[in-house]
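Bug #77: duplicate submission created two jobs. Keeping one. Sequence:
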Amino acid sequence: MPILAFDTATDVATSALVAHGEVLGERTSIARTLLEDVDALLRQASVRPADIEAIVVGTGPGSFTSTRMGIAIARGLALALGAPVAGVSTLDALAAGAPGALPVIDARRGEVFVPGPRAVEPSTVEVAAGTVCVGDGARRYRGVLEAAGAVVPPDESDLHRPRASVHAALARDFGDAQLVLPVYVRVPDVDRLRG
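Kept job's structure:
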């Protein structure tokens, strides 16, 4: 059962093709090249689009625009392929990719997304001494988190990106793509500025 999984919520887009728990291919790029990455994964594994039996998409929280883009692509592919979809939290995927670590996603506006999910100032993230923090927010606010006692892996560590193959492993409850909703945590900038 080939499963296509991807996440576009953070500063990198990850995509993977998984069958029977085996990763057939995985790519990392940016959200706007996601469909090119999907095409490359399918070609590399000699899988036809019609062979995809399910889709897994990262639901955020993360960049509002990139998260919406990923959800829209999942819905479009699901409609075209007649495939069910499951959503997986980007925070959950980061945590599962680094067991015991605290996932921290850059929320911009001087905030980070942490489990809850919630948006908080980096200086208010509660960490026990020695807690490993992963994610683009951990990289960006390394100094603040390390001053609080956290350990942040080197910037180039794969632990900082949510891997789509982990999303696929966490996926449950496949169904109608329209039922998979993004996790925004706070209102979009355009609504905040209007209000």
